[in-house]
């Protein structure tokens, strides 16, 4: 018998009622990094935000934002 794989995505968020999820993606990315800054890199409390932004954001965007954070040019409030 094969193991079942359970797929999940970020839950609906009333702050983002439209189908365009760009802002939702960006907000979840910022929330994750704010959480890790406040609670530490190894905090399990931040993992849900990581799951959300990874489900919503294209990998290319995340790669670019990570590079921008490393160089100090990230446009968002962290």
From TrEMBL:
Main location: mitochondrion
Organism: Microthlaspi erraticum
GO cellular component, one term: respiratory chain complex IV
InterPro entries (alphabetical): COX6B-like, CX6/COA6-like_sf, Cyt_c_oxidase_su6B
UniProt entry tagged with the keyword Calcium: no
Keyword Calcium: no
Compartment list: Mitochondrion
Family: Belongs to the cytochrome c oxidase subunit 6B (TC 3.D.4.8) family.
Disulfide bonds: 25-57, 35-46
Gene3D superfamilies per UniProt: Cytochrome c oxidase, subunit VIb
Superkingdom, taxonomy of origin: Eukaryota
Entry keywords, A to Z: Disulfide bond, Mitochondrion
Protein name: Cytochrome c oxidase subunit
Protein function: This protein is one of the nuclear-coded polypeptide chains of cytochrome c oxidase, the terminal oxidase in mitochondrial electron transport. This protein may be one of the heme-binding subunits of the oxidase. Component of the cytochrome c oxidase, the last enzyme in the mitochondrial electron transport chain which drives oxidative phosphorylation.
Signal peptide residue numbers: none
């Amino acid at each position: 018998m094969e193991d079942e794989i359970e797929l999940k995505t970020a839950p609906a968020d009333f702050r983002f009622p439209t189908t365009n999820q760009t802002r939702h993606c960006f907000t979840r990315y910022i929330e994750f990094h704010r959480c890790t800054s406040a609670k530490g890199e190894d905090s399990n409390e931040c993992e849900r935000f990581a799951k959300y932004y990874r489900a919503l954001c294209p990998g290319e965007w995340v790669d670019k934002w990570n590079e921008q954070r490393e160089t100090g040019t990230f446009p968002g409030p962290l």
